[in-house]
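Annotated sample (chain length 363).
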Amino acid sequence: MPFQIIRNDITKVKADAIVNTANPKPRIGRGTDSAIYAAAGEEQLIAAREKIGDIAPGQAVQTPAFAMDAKYIIHTVGPVWVDGTHGERDTLRSCYENSLNLADSLGCESVAFPLIATGTYGFPKDEALHIALSEIQRFLLTHEMKVTIVVFDRKALELSESLVGGIEQFIDDHTALKLHAKERDGNRSELSRRRRAERDEEPSLYSNISGLSAPLAREEAIDADEELALAPTAAMPDLSGKSLDEILGDAGDSFQQRLLKLIDKSGMDDVTVYKKANIDRKVFSRIRCKPDYKPKKKTALAFAIALELDMPTMTDLLSRAEIALSPSSTFDLIITYFITNKNYDIFEINAALFKYGQPILGE
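Output written by the structure step:
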């Protein structure tokens, strides 16, 4: 996929270019800078850096990657966080913009970034992530390149407090709903047992207990509505009175057919859609050529996000690929949270999925 977030040591990632959070002076710094010097070969890399000289904050320059499994090391100097009023955000945006443009001018097909300036420079991690995602997304809308953010662990990737709070509250609410349903089902089973016992032993008693059936039915309806609000099911056509041959002859659109109709309806061109979906161009070409294409769940959902579908339309599209959302799945709950809140930023969604240990959207 064009964009991904992975957990790894950046010095061990294979890419055409590895981005280094460099010391502005031609000397070895700490953190990522120190690790990259050690992996590339300190003597060779320091000699190459001395030829370049000082690097201004936000600027990006390249050296050979030497012993690393890459063609280039792109050195960029991030901002030291003071209080956010000294141009720190603009400088960080320049780091990503200049590094991406330099990688493109060098003919790179892939580039790997750390989260720039979030270590010893102290840039707030949630803001740094937001800037990184927005700059990478903007670049990929007009360029073909594989861009990877590399972190040591999921704790290094911080989302905004409001987003984390919203997701966790949403998951907690639906976890409570599942527990309520389990408790309700247990109560129903006990009530049914009592009914059968009392009906067998004393019919008159059963008539009194049966009065509970109306509120119980209302509770069932409420619970059903709550569950459908999370994952509505696609409506099946009325098949009564039709032969099997007639039913099969009237089969509805495949996933590919419905997807292409939705793309036409959206007014977006193919390139915009597959880029917004974090889908590789070659994958989209295969989908276009195969009416019976069966996508992975994360691919189908990526298209639904790119097209900004509402829940019923998305559910219908997924059903064409025999895919459904489950209220017991953390992955599905996170997707549902974003769609319910009309947030269709696939880069932010993928950051949240990664943070919670889920696969990210795209192909």
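Annotation: Residues 253-355 form one domain.
Annotation: The radius of gyration is 27 Å.
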